[in-house]
Amino acid sequence: MPPTSLELSTLGHRIRHQRVSHGFTLDELGEKVGVAGSQLSLIENGKREPKLSLLQAIAQVTGVDVAELLSTEPPNRRAALEIELERAQSGSVFRQLGIAPVKVTKTMTDDTIESLLGLHRELQRREREAIATPEEARRANTDLRLRMRAHDNYLPEIERLAEKQLKSAGHISGALTHRTVSIMAERLGFELIYVNDLPHSARSVTDLENGRIYLPPASIPGGHGLRSMALQAMAHRLLGHKPPTDYAHFLQQRLEINYYAACCLMPESASVAFLQQAKKDRNLAVEDFRDAFGVTHEAAGMRMTNLLTQHLGIPLHFLRVDGSGAISRVYENDDLPVPMDVTGSVEGQIVCRRFLARSAFEEQNRTTEHYQYTDTPSGTFWCSTQTGTTSAGEFSITVGVPFDDARWFRGRETQKRDVSRCPDESCCRRATPEVAERWGGKAWPSARVHMQMFSPLPRGAFPGVDDNEVYAFLERHA
Fold this sequence. Notes:
Blueprint: H1 5-21, H2 26-33, H3 37-44, H4 52-62, H5 66-69, H6 77-89, H7 92-95, H8 110-130, H9 134-150, H10 156-168, H11 178-187, E1 191-194, E2 205-207, E3 212-215, H12 224-238, H13 247-265, H14 268-280, H15 286-293, H16 297-312, E4 317-322, E5 327-332, H17 356-359, E6 370-376, E7 379-390, E8 393-402, E9 417-419, H18 433-439, H19 467-477
Parallel strand pairs: 1-3, 6-9
Antiparallel strand pairs: 2-3, 4-5, 4-8, 6-7, 7-8
Helix pairs in contact: 1-6, 2-3, 6-8, 9-13, 10-13, 12-13, 14-16, 15-16
């Protein structure tokens, strides 16, 4: 096996150390061992591998064993510093910066090299922090969910900021218009521009130098999602966000910009007034809240988690579940028993088959909300569920409350009721004894393996965003 560049570099340093110790110049030692000084220079700089016969000649002239020359230990502290710097400058973390490596000279002090190494070590430390393993990401997401649960999913500072921005833009009531969103952007010094060539890895791109927020063109009539994307981009500026330092920081920022957008689309004062009246009428419904502010069913359901407990004293849960039964988004402060892994993470876990969030996919009528009471080990819960479909497949949106609070909601009179014993596997995860006996040992399914199981999470200052793609986009539009 050929020696590595690190091994050649160490060997070169040991040869140079012996040469200098004996007071030889490159040409003088080269003459004694039968090679040109320029050839020795290449060897000492780790650029060329010497033959064994040449190593034996150098060892004989300098009075050491060949084994000592071949030692993997640097001959002195200076050599160790130079080798470490060479290793750092040849690493992928440094090369990605596109900066020319520093050439070490004889006149460069050890302290200077130490300072350079300190910068490299900090660069590598930050790179390690920016890479989140799936387990680290789940823990960060769980920590954030539990912190928000402790605050009833309510952030008063962002609520007040949104109300202030809406008032200054002249918004009074009703659904937030695209025109008002544009005015809000203008007051921050930004122009909204809709383009067809956004980087695939980015939902929007903000050009801070030229005051532009680039968004995709409307994909559906009304383009309701564009308002939210524009508001999220503005939120980064309003909230004073800096590039995230780790994955947990990234998740926190994402939560805050989503929260700000929701506050603008469904302002606190108007939303609370609407919900309080609906509670008084015993007619709370996600679909009414959705239609009153012109947002999606999911956005309305999530906004209820911000306001119902804080202003109406109603604990609740929210679930977004895909067609396979996996939870993709969750919030609960009503003690609904949700599945979780050993880290406490809920996302990706399979919800009980008895929950309406999953059984609603079997309903024939997908255009209205469906209602159900579910008896669980933690008590009885009422919920409403609406299903939908995207290019990624089916999904359901569920908002539910404990039994006693169902009296405030439309659909409380439903006769549909089910029983969930999860996490007891006999509830819905284990086959009946008869079926298990019939097929035990006679089936061998081929599992569908998701590639994300083996992939690290997106890395970088903005996880999942291709910087090169973004900069090329800005160059085209600058």
